[in-house]
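hey so u asked for the seq, here:
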Amino acid sequence: MPSFTPSKFIHQIWKHRELAAAIISGLIIFFTWLFQAALTQEWSITLLISAFIIGGYAKAKEGITESIEEKTLNVELLMIIAAIGAASIGYWTEGAILIFIFALSGALETYTENKSEKELKSLMDLQPETAHLITEQGEETISVKDLNIGNQILIKAGERVPADGIVKKGNTIIDESALTGESIPVAKQKDDKVYAGTMNDNGSITVEINTLPNETLFQRIIKLVHSAHDEKSPSQQFIERFENTYVKVVLIVVGLMMFLPYYLIGWSWTDTIYRAMILLVVASPCALIASIMPATLSAISNGARKGILFKGGLHAEGLAGIHAIAFDKTGTLTEGRPVVTDVRLNEQENVKEVFSILHAIEKQSNHPLAKAVFDFCKTKRDLLSVEVDNVIHINGKGVQAQVQNSIWNIGSARLVGEEKAKAFMEGYANDLSNDDAKTRIFIQRDHEIIGLLLLKDQLRKDSMQTIHALNKLGVKTIMLTGDNQETAAAIANEANIKDFRANCLPEDKVNEMKHLSKQYGKIAMIGDGINDAPALATANLGIAMGAGSDVALETANIVLVKNKLPRIVDAIKLSRKMNRIIKQNIVFSITVILLLIASNFLQMIDLPLGVVGHEGSTILVILNGLRLLKG
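ran it, structure tokens below
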């Protein structure tokens, strides 16, 4: 366990100082109220002034700075003025409570928004910093940023590809899941393309750079994520415009209220100033703010208990307005790992012997397909002990080994012979010949093909349930995948998804998200891989599977922590309920504010009653919002 030190504690407090200040301010107010009978008036005012300063400093500074820089007014200023106004006529506690509620709201908003700052760092961690440049003198390690088009680099087994290029020498297996999302590594040989950020699983290759390091596919992913997060949502822009207008209207009306009634209606100066202060208090947006924050936090807490992490109230609220959801395939709709689904063997073969030999040979390989075959064989009972010799991994094709006096080949049709593979399919697996969605692994002993295994990335058990539930909610479903058309069509049909896009690289997914947004309106994206990060950032809402990559988790606005796809249905229902409660609160709080303002103009209420009405409405909307904690 990490040791606790005072410096770490101080660092954490400073990091979340705005939240800490709001909490301290609230504690001071509570202490003053609790011991008001024992405190003198001077001590009570002194404590409340400290609550003003501690809780209001950050928001006051932010409001003043923003007003000066942008030459506009904001709610921060109005709240500070309202609180000072209440205190100026003797209502210190009411003013301090206004400060506390607003400070707490702002602190929690700042805290949640800072969570998204880690995503670009997570992306950059996957970008190699150095490369092995091949020169006339031999091999030289240089910075990736110093690479130029035409340079040739050596990429060893177990290293990430530092830049986009073309294979000039060697054969290997490249794990491209970081870019395409495809779980099965791709064989690479001369003249094939490789991309920065992908992993070279085995075999050394020489690659000629054909793209500048700052223009690689991987770098474009980083730029896409960054630019998508810089764009403000329409709802955020509306809130900012509303805030400015609201503050101007209130301040103008209060300013007029300070002297017009004296000249036009004949009020005394005392009544005029008194009514202006009441207006400033009852018109403050405390109840409006409380209409949203408690309901939002309650929904976030409720979602967390169910394994749904909302990264801020904006996303919890926005999910209700989603009209369509695009799903990544690998690791989202499917399990993300291949499994053996079908087996065909010559009738005269000894099944136990064949599986025992397969088990022994595939044990020697770390390829995902080999692991799938090995795991399948492990499920068979009473496997024989088999001695395997001369195991050779043939890149892009499969594996060869000697068992007693026979040579066994386990791999693709290219390994065992295209014509022999076709003849076996027509003879023993004719019913499977059109299943292009599955990967075929042939079993050959000496020169005879004796069996066939079909492997497939299995659909999650809960995928169909989720798609059906979303369709009932009126949410359209689309699948985006880097797989070929045949594989994509098979998975989409199995999951009952009517619309899908195949052969999608990260840039293609981003373009598809933009197109789907025009077609359906607000759209969400669910994914789990690095390749999904740009699309997650481009969508109105990005949703990541909890077992996905760090980059997907950081980029997404919502995370299904327990990796359960049906939780997205629960999240939508929760978001819709939250929005209903927020609308109820807003209508109620505005109605109360308007009634209090009208009553003030008609001189039907005094300041204590105005504060009671204002704070009472705030308490009621908070309690209404807390209903979301249940269920």
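The chain is about 55% helix and 20% strand. The two ends are 35 Å apart (CA to CA).
lmk if thats what u needed
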